[in-house]
Amino acid sequence: MISKKMKKKLVEFVREDIAGKDITTELITEKKCNAIIKLKEKAVVSGLEEAKFLFEFFRVKTKVLAKNGKKYNKGKTLIKLKGSNKQILIAERTALNVLSRMSGIATSAKKAQKIAGKNCKIMLTRKTCAGLNELDKKAGIEAGILPHRKNLNSAFLIKENHLKFGSIQELIQKAKKMNKKNKEKTGKGKQKNKLTEKKLIEVEIQNFFELNQAIKAKPDVIMLDNFSLKNAGKALKEIRKTKIKIEVSGNINFENLREYSSLKPDFISMGLLTHSVKGINLSLLVS
To answer: C-alpha angle with apex 165: 162 to 170, nearest 5 degrees?
Structure first.
């Protein structure tokens, strides 16, 4: 399902592309036509719902022939279109761009989870393009991985720069107090909302001194940031003596993912899934 907020963004993306008038499409006579969108390479597909919305916004009949999160071979027809040639051409590039990016993320995400197997769950990060966070997260979810924090309000994540202004123990205790205060505000029988619900508390650590501080402070999750494979293994042994969940992050790629996942942390987050997206090659063909 597409949120109202994202629907508005998608329409704005097209309007930005039109920039007042599609002067090339103005050259042609308006006619009814059929078109298809097909894959030009093997991919895990995501973004079909968004592409369908964009074409239907321009009154183009749309029939989706694939499912989000599924892998298809080169040549697979994903969508059939029927409507005004002008409307199809106006929406074409924005729809293909969204479908390409989301399918690129889904393809890499599925590959990453396959490498990690049952050892751990792969997660995205917040290293996305501004304005596309919701779409990027959705693509990851459709591929079967976790989105991590969706926004700054969804969880506490105490990072290196936060620790310039307070200790690990101090900031974790403040987060716990904020959770407690919000719980008291909600009260018995009162409805929870995004501002009053309990938030997960995670702290990012860089070394073993910070690890010891974090374990004593008892957050929900400890993130090992840029730990070597050897040091990550040592850190996991210490954290496993507690009930704290473990996330491994920082320069994890397809070359070293198997080794890190063999340590069996709870989560591995991979920034490259969104900051280095390889869009999937697609084409729209008018018949």
So the answer is: 85
